[in-house]
Specification:
The chain has 587 residues and is an alpha+beta fold. It contains 15 helices and 34 strands.
C-alpha cells in the first residue's frame, strides 16, 4: 500500500505559540520557578522537553518532582527570564549586558540550543571594544568556538587594540588562556614584537596572581624580533625576564643578533615574522630603460595588490642579481645608475660588486661582503643556502666573465666555484635540487645570442656539462622551474614569442604556445602552484620600445596565458624575489 510521509513546518511553531499564550495568561501553569525573589509561572512538560536539568528534576522518583515552587538560587532573575523567553518562543535577546546572565542560566539548566545561540552571538559580534570581554566569557563557560574566534580576532586586531588606551586597559583583564593563545598567533598585522613583549610584562604586573605562569607567557614572545638594545634594557629592568629559563631565551636572542652573515641559516620560530603569506618583491626597475628607481614593490598574489616597501634600495640599480635565503633579501652587483640632475638624458653607469642584505624583521639594509668581481647581466641562484653568482659582464668596455663565485654564509665570504667553459653575459639560470642549469646569453667575442645549455651539480660537479640546446637562441631571457620541469621565456630582440619546456630526464626541449606580444626586461617568478607570473617589461610598438604595465600569468599545466592585473605604472628591468613580509594593520 502506498503512503506519504508529510511534514508541517508550522505545527511546532503553533504549539510553542499556544504555550506562550497560556504562560502570558497564567493558565494551566503547574510549577513556579523562583530566582532572586522573582517568581515565574511555567509548564512542567515544556520545561522538561527543553532542559535536561528539568527533565531530571521532574522524574517521578525525584523529591522535587511534585513541588509547586522550585527555587533556583544560583541564577539571576534576569537570566532565568531570558531563558524562559527562549524556551517558550525559540527567540533570545542578547547584548553584552545580558550575555553572561543568559549563559549562566542556559548552562545551569542545560539548554544547549540557547548556549549555541550565545556562542553564535559572540562569534558574529566581536569588535575591538568587546573582544577581551567575549574571550573571558567564552573561557569561563567553555565555549570553544567562541573562545577560538575571540582569540583569533584579538591577534589579528592587536595593532588597533594597542593603539587605544581604553582597549589596552581591557586587555589587562584578559584571561591567561586567551593571552597564551593570542601569543602563538602566526599572523599579527602591524604589530612590533617589542610592543607585544611590553604588553605581556604589563599584564604580568597587573595580574600578580598569575606570576607563576609568566614563563609560559614570555616563552611565546619571539625575542629574535626585538632590537638587541631594547631587549637588553628590558631584561635588566623587568623581574619577569630574570628567571633562569627566560634569561637563557633572551641570551640566545642576543647571541643571534651578533651572528652577522650566519643569521639566514639560524632561523626559527623566534626569528620568524608573524605572517604566513608570501609576497613577491619587484626589485629595481623603472618606467623606462636605464632609469631604475630605488622603490621596491611588494605584490600580494591573492588580493592582487601592490604596496611599496618602506625601505628603498640603497642604490638605483639595473642588471643586478636578487635572491632570498632565510627570508633575507640579497641584492648583488649590477649597474649603479646616477642620472645628471641638470641633464636628465645623461646618466653615469658603474658596475659594482656590492652586496646588500635586507632584513624585513627590522626593515633594514646592511652591506655585506662584496663579490670577488664586479658583475652585471649575470645569473644568480641559491642552492641549499649557498648563493651562486655566475658569469656576467664586468666593468663597461671589459670582456664578459666566465668565473663563478659562491657565498658560504657560515664563513661569511665569497669563494671561487667551478668556472663556465666560456665567458658569457645576458644568460639565465634555474635550479632543480642541487643542480644548476644555465642557458643562452652572448658569449665573448660574439654578437649573436646562444642556444647552449649547461648543467652543474653545485656541490659534487667539477665541470659544467652540456645539455641539449634550446631551439631558440636567447639573450636577456628568464628561466623558471615548476614541478621539476624547466621553462625558458622571452629574451631581448627575439623575432618570435615562443617559450620552451625542458625535461631533465629526457634531456629534451619542447616548444609551447607563444605569447601574443614580444616582451623583454620583465620580472618573472613562480607561484605556489603550477603558474609563472610575468611583471611589466618592454615591447616593440610602432618601431619604438614601450614600457608595459600588465601582469601576465602562465599556466604550465594548460599552456595558457592570461592577464591577472595591472602594475601601478609602467615598469621594466625588474628582478623578482619571494619573501614573507608582515602585513600592515587591517583597516
Amino acid at each position: 500500500m502506498n503512503y506519504y510521509l508529510m511534514l508541517s513546518n508550522s505545527h511546532g511553531e503553533g504549539v510553542l505559540s499556544r504555550y506562550q499564550s497560556l504562560r502570558l495568561e497564567g493558565r494551566m501553569c503547574d510549577v513556579v520557578l523562583e530566582a532572586e525573589g522573582v517568581e515565574f509561572p511555567a509548564h512542567r512538560t515544556l520545561l522538561a522537553c527543553s532542559s535536561d536539568y528539568f527533565w531530571s528534576v521532574f522524574k517521578d522518583y525525584n523529591l522535587e518532582s511534585g513541588a509547586h515552587t522550585i527555587s533556583l538560587p544560583a541564577l539571576s532573575s534576569l537570566g532565568l527570564e531570558q531563558i524562559l523567553d527562549f524556551v517558550y518562543t525559540s527567540w533570545i535577546s542578547l547584548s553584552p549586558s545580558t550575555l553572561e546572565v543568559t549563559l549562566q542560566a542556559a548552562c545551569y539548566l542545560q539548554i544547549t540550543h540557547a548556549v549555541e545561540l550565545c556562542t553564535q552571538y559572540i562569534s558574529e559580534s566581536i569588535a575591538p571594544d568587546n573582544c577581551c570581554f567575549f574571550a573571558n566569557i567564552a573561557a569561563r563557560y567553555g565555549l570553544s568556538d567562541a573562545f577560538n574566534n575571540s582569540n583569533s580576532f584579538i591577534g589579528s586586531n592587536m595593532c588597533r587594540i594597542l593603539a587605544s588606551e581604553e582597549h589596552k586597559a581591557e586587555i589587562m583583564e584578559l584571561n591567561i588562556d586567551s593571552l597564551q593563545e593570542v601569543l602563538i598567533a602566526e599572523e599579527m598585522p602591524g604589530v612590533k614584537e617589542i610592543d607585544l613583549l611590553q604588553l605581556v610584562l604589563n599584564w604580568i604586573e597587573c595580574n600578580p596572581q598569575s606570576a607563576l605562569h609568566s614563563n609560559a607567557l614570555l616563552s611565546r614572545i619571539r625575542f629574535g624580533l626585538i632590537p638587541p638594545k631594547e631587549l637588553s634594557q628590558l631584561s635588566a629592568l623587568k623581574p619577569a625576564l630574570s628567571t633562569p629559563f627566560i634569561q637563557s631565551v633572551v641570551q640566545k636572542a642576543l647571541n643571534y643578533h651578533l651572528q652577522g652573515s650566519l643569521k639566514p641559516l639560524l632561523q626559527s620560530v623566534h626569528t620568524s615574522l608573524r605572517a604566513t603569506k608570501s609576497k613577491i618583491l619587484l626589485v629595481g626597475g623603472g618606467p623606462e630603460a636605464n632609469r631604475p628607481q630605488n622603490q621596491i614593490l611588494a605584490y600580494e598574489p591573492h588580493s592582487k595588490k601592490f604596496q611599496p616597501l618602506s625601505a628603498s634600495l640603497p642604490n638605483k640599480l639595473q642588471h643586478q642579481g636578487v635572491c632570498v635565503v632565510g627570508n633575507f633579501l640579497f641584492v648583488l652587483g649590477g649597474e649603479v645608475v646616477q642620472v645628471d640632475e641638470e641633464n636628465e638624458k645623461s646618466a653615469v653607469m658603474t658596475v659594482t660588486n656590492q652586496v646588500w642584505r635586507y632584513d624585513p624583521r627590522f626593515e633594514q639594509w646592511e652591506e655585506m661582503e662584496p663579490l670577488l668581481q664586479k658583475r652585471e647581466q649575470f645569473a644568480c641562484c641559491v642552492v641549499e643556502g649557498v648563493i651562486f653568482a655566475i658569469g656576467g659582464g664586468g666593468q663597461r668596455g671589459e670582456p664578459a666573465l666566465s668565473s663563478v663565485e659562491m657565498y658560504n654564509m657560515s664563513e661569511g665570504c665569497w669563494r671561487s666555484a667551478v668556472s663556465l667553459p666560456y665567458s658569457v653575459h645576458g644568460h639565465a639560470c634555474t635550479t632543480i635540487g642541487t643542480g644548476i642549469y644555465v642557458s643562452g646569453g652572448i658569449h665573448v667575442n660574439s654578437t649573436e645570442s646562444s642556444k647552449e645549455v649547461l648543467f652543474l651539480n653545485a656541490f659534487e660537479g667539477d665541470a659544467w656539462q652540456r645539455r641539449s640546446n634550446m631551439s631558440i637562441a636567447r639573450f636577456g631571457h628568464q628561466m623558471a622551474t615548476v614541478r621539476g620541469t624547466i621553462y625558458t621565456f622571452l629574451g631581448m630582440y627575439e623575432h618570435f614569442c615562443d617559450i620552451e619546456r625542458y625535461s631533465p630526464e629526457q634531456d629534451l626541449w619542447t616548444r609551447l604556445k607563444p605569447l601574443l606580444n614580444d616582451r623583454f626586461c620583465y620580472g618573472l617568478t613562480t607561484t605556489e602552484g603550477r603558474s609563472v607570473l610575468m611583471f611589466g617589461g618592454r615591447k616593440w610598438q610602432e618601431g619604438q620600445e614601450v614600457c608595459t604595465t600588465n601582469v601576465l600569468e602562465y599556466d604550465t599545466e594548460y599552456d595558457a596565458w592570461r592577464e591577472v592585473c595591472k602594475l601601478p605604472g609602467p615598469l621594466c628591468g625588474i628582478q623578482c624575489a619571494i619573501m614573507t613580509l608582515q602585513d600592515p594593520p587591517e583597516t
